[in-house]
């Protein structure tokens, strides 16, 4: 598999594995630090996301948004649920893939980050 050689895990948030509130806080801070490290350079850019296997109905869809805050990579995409895991991989230049697991199943999101066009 040629493409998996280029895939790199860059951020991981796993609420399911938290042992207590402190452990969850540490996971959250480490996760936000990883997002900041990889996405701070993209602030102001446009993010396009395609999702597959979303919700218990296995829906597909897409959305785009301006990256105003690095946490948007997570918050503007994941479902509202109290427990989930989120693994974010870099798959190429300006392209990423997230694997998300929660009580409704596993979802996949594909990101492409593009510089905004000057008007």
Summary tags:
6-stranded antiparallel sheet, globular, single chain, 3 helices, 119 residues, alpha+beta
Mean pLDDT: 85
Structural Rg:
14 Å
Helix content: 10-25%
Assign the structural class, choosing from mainly alpha, mainly beta, alpha/beta, alpha+beta, or little secondary structure. alpha+beta
Biggest sheet features: 6 strands, antiparallel
Can you count the beta strands? 6
Q: How many domain modules?
A: 1
User: What gap, in angstroms, lies between the N and C termini?
Assistant: 41 Å
Number of helices: 3
Enumerate the spans where pLDDT stays under 50 for 5 or more consecutive residues. none
Run of helices and strands: HEHEEHEEE
Tell me the strand percentage band. Answer: 35-45%
Sequence of strands across the biggest β-sheet: 1-4-5-6-2-3
General form:
globular
Would you mind describing this structure in some detail?
The protein is of the alpha+beta class and 119 residues long. It has one domain. It is 24% helix and 43% strand. It has 3 helices and 6 strands. It has a 6-stranded antiparallel β-sheet. The model has no long low-confidence stretch (mean pLDDT 85).
Produce the secondary structure layout.
Blueprint (H helix, E strand, L loop, with lengths): L1 H5 L1 E7 L6 H19 L6 E9 L4 E8 L5 H4 L8 E9 L2 E8 L2 E10 L5
Antiparallel strand pairs: 1-4, 2-3, 2-6, 4-5, 5-6
